[in-house]
Amino acid sequence: MKPQILLIHGGTTFKTRKAYLDFLKNLKVSTEPRIRWRDGYLDKELGNKFEIIRPTMPLKENAQYEDWKIYFERYFPHIKSNVILIGTSLGGTFLAKYLSENKFPKKIKSVYLIAPPFDNTLPGEDLVNGFKLKSDLSMINTNCKHVELFFSSSDEVVPLTHAKKYRKKLPNSEIIILDNIKGHFQVSKFPELIKKIIQKK
To answer: Which Gene3D superfamilies match (predicted)?
Structure first.
C-alpha cells in the first residue's frame, strides 16, 4: 500500500463580515485554469509513489479554526501510520496550531509547512477566527521529529519576519528560505519540496 500525503490548502480569515464581503466584491476573478504546484504537478511527481489526500476545508474564503479542526479529524479513520502532512499558508498555520495543542492519533513521518503565517502581523490580511498560535509550540516536535518550514524571500503575503518567529519557537525544526520562489508560492513547480519528500521515503 502506498504511503499517504495529507495536504491542507490555504485560506483567508476576516475580523468582520463587512471585511469579508468587501473581499468578495474586490476579488480578482478569471476563467483561466489555475496552475499550482499542489495540484497536477504534485500528482505527476509523487502520485505513483504516494496516496495524496486533499481535504477541501470548510469555507476557505472565511475560515474558522474550529470548523477546520472538526473536518480535519473526520479524516483520522482513513489515515495510516507514517503519514506525511503538508500545510500551505493558512493550512500550515492550522497544522502548527493543531499539532501544538493535540496528540495526533497516528505516527507522522514528516511535516512540511509552506509559508505559514505566525501571527496577525501580515501586511494585507488578518489572522483571526481561532487560528492564533499558543506561545508554546514544542508539542509539534513531540508529534513529529521531522518538521520543515519553507519561506520565500520575496513573499509579499507572509514576510520573512514570520520565519524568524517560527525559528525561535521551533529550534529543532528546519527553516528553509528560498530565493528562487517568487511571491507566496503561487508557482507551477516546487522541486525543493519533492526532493525532501523523496529523500525521506
So the answer is: alpha/beta hydrolase (3.40.50.1820)
Query: Which three cell numbers, joined as nine digits, stand for 158?
Result: 507572509
Res. 9: pLDDT tops 90: yes
Q: What is the pLDDT of residue 201?
A: 62
- Quote the longest CA-to-CA distance of the chain: 48
Tell me the three cell numbers of residue 180.
528562487
The fold for domain 4-200 equals Rossmann fold (3.40.50)
Structural domain spans, the chain: 4-200
Asked whether 113 and 94 are in contact (CB, 8 A), the reply is: no
Edge-to-edge strand order for the sheet containing 108-114?
51-53, 4-8, 83-88, 108-114, 147-152, 174-178
Give CA–CA dist 68/57, Å, rounded: 6
The C-alpha atoms of residue 170 and residue 112 are separated, in whole angstroms, by 13
The pLDDT confidence band at residue 27, using thresholds 50, 70 and 90, is confident
Claim: this prediction has a pTM higher than 0.85: yes
For 50-71, letters b (16+ CB in 10 Å) and e give bebeeeebeeeebbbbeebbee
**How far apart, in Å, are the Cα atoms of 201 and each of 12, 47, 175, 183?**
32, 13, 20, 29
- Report pLDDT digits (tens) over 160-196: 999 999 999 999 999 999 998 888 998 889 999 999 9
